Amino acid sequence: MSEISMVDLERQYLLIKEEIDAAIQEVLLKTAFINGPQVKSFANNLSAYLQGAHVTPCANGTDALQIAMMALDLPKGGEIIVPSFTYVATAEVIALLGYKPVFADVDPDTFNLSADQVQKLITKSTVAVVPVHLFGQCADMQPIMSLAQEHKIAVIEDAAQALGTRYIMGTDTLFAGAVGDIGTTSFFPSKNLGCYGDGGALITRDAALAEKAHIIANHGQRVKYHHDVVGVNSRLDTLQAAILDVKLKYFDRYLANRNQVAALYDEAFSDISEIQIPARKEYSTHSFHQYTITIKSDKRDALKAHLQVKGIPSMIYYPLPLHKQKAYAEWFDPKNPLPNSEFLCDHVLSLPIHTEMKPKEMEYIADQVVNFFK
């Protein structure tokens, strides 16, 4: 058995090598490296995949969050509610733009924000909430949307780990990122749909908001050298767009393969009392950007060490909640404790999962986890 990786991008590439190489070669030959036709092609194709939601490509997922907040014209200095158990980028742009991050606890089963957690943090200064669809499953958006509409606050979805996930909202099925006012995603190489460098996009069903995001991402200009608003320089490279356009054709297969790995893990771990497998909620599909288990006992670090000895990598996403990070400690209100976030940081472990895992690899990983708890 070959070396096990958390994500095996080489194996994925080799299966579509001819198409990827041809797409790259076309860009090189035409030399339209910035805003080439492949960028528009990919945006249109991803829009079609997302049931017609508008797609604005940009340089990376963090830029997408920043552009989203700029496009919404949120009152300066306002409060934005964000989960503490997430990657730093979500809070980073809030602080950089001069807003106040208000850290919320998450549901320990789904790892996501709930409307109950959001509701108790809303004040007269609240201008937005950022649900993060962590590890690939949507936060329960319908009650969050109702709460936001009641209090007239914006909803910015961070769907960097959940592109392709579907949310069931009443009689409608919407894609992650296309439920709130505006959504963001990342095309970082290890993401559900990843390029070979950095990349990101904004997603919205609001045509006017999509146009504004596009203008902001291009130095605030509709017409070259005519700047209507203060903008940024955030473009998806033509090479990356060409790669993504090829991979988009295989995206549903990638999601199905991730779910196949998750199903095997679920079955293997279902009888281990010390392991809580990822929750599956009726309102959302799961794209399993990560397969993250919660170790109910204090054996998480010992399990990680055991797996390492057996040649199995694992990762802790995330070892420290945002409200305990030095850079963000000033915004933490001790009167609002976040016990679930702190517990999860000490007890979660993500196992290898990717689109091209072989049955022997999955079974070996599952067996080593099970053997540890015997």
Walk me through this protein's architecture.
With 374 residues, the chain is α/β, with parallel strands linked by helices. Helices cover 39% and strands 16% of the residues. It has 13 helices and 14 strands. The protein has helices at 9-15, 17-30, 37-49, 61-71, 89-96, 115-119, 141-151, 207-217, 238-248, 251-269, 300-309, 339-347, 359-373, and strands at 54-58, 79-83, 100-104, 126-129, 154-158, 166-169, 172-175, 182-186, 200-204, 221-223, 226-227, 275-276, 291-295, 348-351. The strands form 4 sheets. The protein has a 7-stranded mixed sheet with strand order 1-9-8-5-4-2-3, with helices on both faces. The model has no long low-confidence stretch (mean pLDDT 97).
SSE arrangement, N to C:
HHHEHEHEHEHEEEEEHEEHHEEHHEH
Can you list the strand order of the major beta sheet? 1-9-8-5-4-2-3
The parts where pLDDT drops under 50 for at least 5 residues are none
Number of helical runs? 13
Radius of gyration of CA atoms, rounded to a whole number: 21 Å
Question: How far apart, in Å, are the first and last alpha carbons?
Answer: 24 Å
Mean pLDDT, all residues: 97
Note the beta-strand portion.
15-25%
Overall shape: globular
> Which structural class do you get from the secondary structure elements?
alpha/beta
- Give the total of beta strands: 14
Sketch the major β-sheet: 7 strands, mixed
Helical residues, percent: 25-40%
